[in-house]
Amino acid sequence: MNKYTLILAIFLTGILSACGTQSNEQASTNSTSTANENGAISAAEVHKKIKDNPKLTIVDVRTPDEYAQGHLENAHNIDWNSNSFENKIDGFERDKPILVYCLSGARSAAAAEKMRSFGFKNVLEMENGMMAWRAAQLPETTANVSVAKPAGMNRDQFDAALNSPKLVLIDFYADWCAPCKKMAPYLEEIKTEMGDKVEVVRINADDSAELSSQLSIEELPTVLVFKNKTMVWKNVGYIGKEELVKHLQ
Predict the structure, then answer these.
(1) Residue 180: active-site member
(2) Is the pLDDT of residue 39 over 60?
(3) pTM, to two decimals
(4) In what residue span(s) does the Rhodanese domain sit (predicted)?
């Protein structure tokens, strides 16, 4: 290789390296932009938002034990992994900003996606959760100042749920109820597999104590099936998927 060929090769290598760097920087910028579009903001930005808006609704989706060890001031604790997450989050206003966080960001991302599917219009997620908050040495508290009260379901909401052209399957359950936990996975399957003709509504009996009393729900699980707002079948206690589906045909 003569010296002119060598100089040309070095020159081209430098150009390609520069282009590669520019491409990587652009990819990084695009990645950050996507995260922001999805509502993810840094711990520092969260801290500023709370200062600017002390009434900002904040939801900690970690377990109660994690919450008790330290959380953002005035944060509501609604465990993402609890069966009552959907009922409890339903109590918040959908048209106001709401911030969600967990330990590192995975649970809050899942919770935020679910909330958006429920119609929440402005859901913010704290990037990397409490790990980022603590790394930035931002303030936290161990006081249970604002644990979310169960939203539950009232009689008007129950009656509205029955206003469907489909069969309506009502499942009264509780988080502590072992048979209820056993039934939960296949009830989700029925919701998907028979969604064209069956509405599945799960009601936490503990959170909806008044409604449970009004409907004389004395044991769990209790399954009620309604057609045209009239109860056509009832089952108290555990029932398998195959047997339940027979009553929905």
Answers:
(1) yes
(2) yes
(3) 0.49
(4) 52-142
